[in-house]
Amino acid sequence: MRAALDLAAKASQQGDVPVGAIVLNSDGEVVGRGFNTREVDNDPMNHAEVVAMREAANANGSWRLDDHTLVVTLEPCTMCAGAAVQARIGRIVLVPLTIKLEPLDHFGMWFETVDCHTDLKLFQGYWQMNVARF
After folding, report:
1. Catalytic residues
2. The sheet that has 91-94: what strands, in order across it?
3. Which tens digits make up the pLDDT trace of 1-58?
4. SS (H, E, C) 36-53
5. DSSP string, the chain
6. Mind listing the pLDDT tens digit for each residue in 41-52?
7. Cβ-proximal residues to 33 (8 Å cutoff; 6+ apart), any chain
C-alpha cells in the first residue's frame, strides 16, 4: 500500500491528480505500477489504474487478471472501474490518502449494477491498515 502512495506522490510532482495504483499477483508480488500521467503524456486514458493494469497484463502474459488485486489511492472513476471489470480483476483495495478522500458509497453499488465478469471483492480502508488480512 505504501508503494501506491509513493506513486501518487510522483503524479503530484508532475502536476497531475495524485493517484497511484499497484497490481498484486496471487503471490502478493507487485506486477503492475501506475500513477496519473495524463498531463505529462497528454493522454486522457493514462489514469493510474489503467497504467498499472496494462503493466500487470504484460507481466502476466494475459489481459485476464482475475487472481490479481488492484490497490489504488482514490476511488476509481467510471472508466477505471470499467477497465477493472474488463480485466477481470478479482479484488480492489481502496486506500484513500485522507478521510476526505474516503471512497463514496456509490462505488460499491456501481459494481452491483454492471455485468461483472468476476466475483469482485471490494475493500476499503486507510493505508495504515494491515493489508495481510485481505
Report:
1. 49
2. 30-35, 20-24, 69-72, 91-94, 121-124
3. 789 889 999 999 999 999 999 999 999 999 999 999 999 999 999 999 999 999 999 9
4. CCHHHHCCCCCCHHHHHH
5. -HHHHHHHHHHHHTTS---EEEEE-TTS-EEEEEE--HHHHT-TT--HHHHHHHHHHHHHTSS--TT-EEEESS---HHHHHHHHHTT--EEEE--SSGGGPPPHHHHHHHHHS--SS--EEEE--TTS-GGG-
6. 999 999 999 999
7. 3, 7, 20, 21, 22, 23, 51, 52, 55
